[in-house]
Amino acid sequence: MDLTSSAGADPAGPDPLPTPADAVLTPDSVRAFRTRLKQPEDTIDPSTWAGSVPDVRGTAPHVRIGHDKWFNLMWLIPLGFAALVVAIAVAQGLREIPAVQDFMRTYPGTVERPDSQQLAGFPAWVSWQHFLNLFFMIFIIRSGVQILTDHPRLYWTRHSTPGSEWFRFQKPVPDDPLWTAKQDSVNVPGWIGLPGLRHSIGLARWWHLGVDTLWLLNGIVFVILLFVTGHWTRLVPTSWDVFPNALSVAIQYASLNWPLEHGWYAYNSLQLLAYFITVFIAAPLALITGLGMSPALSTRMRWVSSRFSIQVARSLHFLVLCWFLMFIVIHVTLVFTTGALANLNHMYANRNDQTWVGFWIFAASMVVVIVGWVGASPLTIRKPRLIQRVGFALIGPAQRLFEHVDARPGQYTEKDISPYLWHNGKYPETDEYRELFDNDFRDYRLHIGGLVESPVELSMTEVRALPYHEQITQHFCIQGWSGVAKWGGVSMTEILNTVQPKPEAKWAVFYSLGDGPDGGLYYDAHPLEQMRSELAMLAYDMNGEPLSYGHGAPLRLRNEVQLGFKMVKWIRGIEFVADFADLGGGYGGYNQDHEFFGYRQSI
Ligand SMILES: Nc1nc2c(c(=O)[nH]1)N[C@H]1C(S)=C(S)[C@@H](COP(=O)(O)O)O[C@H]1N2
Ligand SMILES: [Mo]
Hints:
- By secondary structure, this protein is an alpha+beta fold.
- It has two domains: 62-400, no CATH class; 408-594, Alpha-Beta Complex (Sulfite Oxidase, Chain A, domain 2), CATH 3.90.420.10.
- Helix content is 42%, strand content 12%.
- The protein has helices at residues 49-52, 76-94, 98-106, 124-149, 181-184, 201-229, 242-254, 269-291, 295-300, 302-305, 310-337, 340-349, 357-382, 384-402, 431-438, 460-465, 492-499, 528-531, 590-594; strands at residues 62-65, 69-72, 153-154, 167-168, 446-450, 456-458, 469-476, 482-491, 507-515, 521-527, 536-542, 545-546, 556-559, 571-577.
- The strands form three sheets. It has a five-stranded mixed sheet.
- A hairpin with a 3-residue loop joins strand 1 (62-65) and strand 2 (69-72).
- Helix 11 crosses helix 12 (340-349).
- The longest helix is centred in the middle third of the chain and has 29 residues, at 201-229.
- The ligand Nc1nc2c(c(=O)[nH]1)N[C@H]1C(S)=C(S)[C@@H](COP(=O)(O)O)O[C@H]1N2 binds next to strand 9.
């Protein structure tokens, strides 16, 4: 058989289908699938991780220029160095010009405010929040880089069409019609990435989202205290003079004849602008663009997401990272080159002198940083369940808050349909599947049971006889790609009406005909309240054609407030349960059991 072509029988086919052998239908018949789930492990062996995925490294980062020219960003190192040399020469030349000298006398670099002297010094909360901020940022940035490596391409449209990305650190997408996003993922060394394993996005996300909540809380407290204590005037420009002064400072730095520092009571204008942008623009933008990648929020906030797609959010989120990295490098360099002892005394010891006190407090804090940095990846690999649990405790409440179901079908139109929808996951390769496929799924039966009044086994003909439902929706893969497709099939409401879940049923568990990468059936549990949404359906058509092998023939799930990994493809059965604790590993799905994802992932 050619598995790359579309599958599925003519819905109105004349063939009389054999009625199912008189199997005894009991609510428990789907329970048998449970025995085919694989128990997960609670530690990670990097050599067998994610189905023994080899540790592939990315390429140098490239930016697309024009249609298909790619610029290797490594060139920025020599180019940047050359630009620096030119800038120094130009700035030194400028400072010889009398008009420039006049300008710099008028705008020496620092705008003093009336309250500058009164607000001199740094309260202890600033020192603490500065430290916590930098400590949290380490884990956020490292896990963020890890997440990026899981789909090493950035786009400006929601379509994620290969070749249309503006940035990549991976080769062009190969000419393989079944190439998956997982095959496309790369890795970075464990001291950069967190946890530094290829396709470890589940764990990286717990770090990223979990520490993010702490970072945000720290930031909110910081901003509140800034305004309560009046210290905000140190970080917010209050006069347009900040711009000419910043230019003056830039010339002074570039000419290597640096400005006098008055950091104890006032920052120079360039510094002020950099801090202002970081605290009041970059940090909120990081949050907004982060949330912009969430399926639950995007389907709720249609007016925003129709203009700024998840890919715009992801690209901007990356550019915010670039800002932070640039800021950190320049900030740290200047702290150490513009009077290190005095600067460290300001921030770490609240004193304005040249003693070593601040340095030693800083050094002690760096021990904590180094321990955290060195320990984070090994801890994650040894205790992944701990990371999963703590991460869920930190971000879980927000995730549940965002997953309210109010999305209406037909959110996108035919013209929004993506020309290319990435494939993902592990394809079913069993003889069982092959025979079903070769026979156009005539022998296929969808088993539905568990906590229901009327368990059923449905042939594809019977599934197709149920009222037809169609929706054009956007798919969000946890790895970062997205795409819009039209899905045709049967609404889950129809299925619920047919089988009538009992009141105790709280979850619908979908079992696949395919195995997951570590063996055992792929499965996933969905909250029943989401299965009642208008946008929950079993699809057998995609973009007006029978669902293909790659996209999940004969049936796949759509639940538009969740990420792609929860949309089980090649469905064999559905079991309604009160609780998923005794299914598989008990974490609510294959990726939750084996790759430490979360069972509700609406962000
Ligand atoms: N049975 C099964 N279903 C699966 C997977 C899988 O590995 N096995 N992968 C999931 C993931 S991670 C994604 S993003 C979507 C991809 O669907 P697509 O290939 O149709 O785009 O399928 C999901 N369903
Ligand atoms: Mo995915």
